[in-house]
Amino acid sequence: GTGKVLIHGADQKLEGQNLWDLVNPADKSQYIIRELDRVAKDGSVFLRYSFPKPGKGTEKFYPKLGTAMLVPGRAMWVGTGAYIDDISESQQTLARKMADITGSTRTKIGVTFLILGMIAIAIVVVLARHFTNPIRGLIQSSEKIRDGDYNVEIHAQSKDEIGQLARTFNAMVAQIKHYTNNLGQMVEERTSELNRALAILHE
Length: 203
Description:
This protein is an alpha+beta fold.
């Protein structure tokens, strides 16, 4: 990695800057961006560090949980983070949603769509500013899938990022068709992943 920021949703002033040497203010030996680069590459999913909260001053540091994932076929990754105390406040809501997963078949399918949406959004965030019109087609197709229409396909013959995104999306739709025949196993796997995330928060 290089540490160069392409898009920053919270602070556009950081776009174009190199944050490779950004350190954890509470632990000067931890380089945050370098560690997130490692997380994206080795698949370890989460990174713990401390950072000031917006609007809370720069002298007090709060525990934060970061994550990063590689953009398929590109030498870049998408990362995000949340403060631990904010996550803790949402744990009860998350627990209720986890209980709902075992409910109706519609809910189980909804979990799959949620995961698909998270992957699609992560890729779209990187490209959206430059490819607005094709992405509208992706969103419309996603809405059809959400309503239960799997007979959609993104047509893109180009070999650029949009073409790759379309092929990835089409492959995901094909997988969804397959997953609907194996909902029980899929929900069990996703629930296990959520439990692992909660376990990390309580470490």
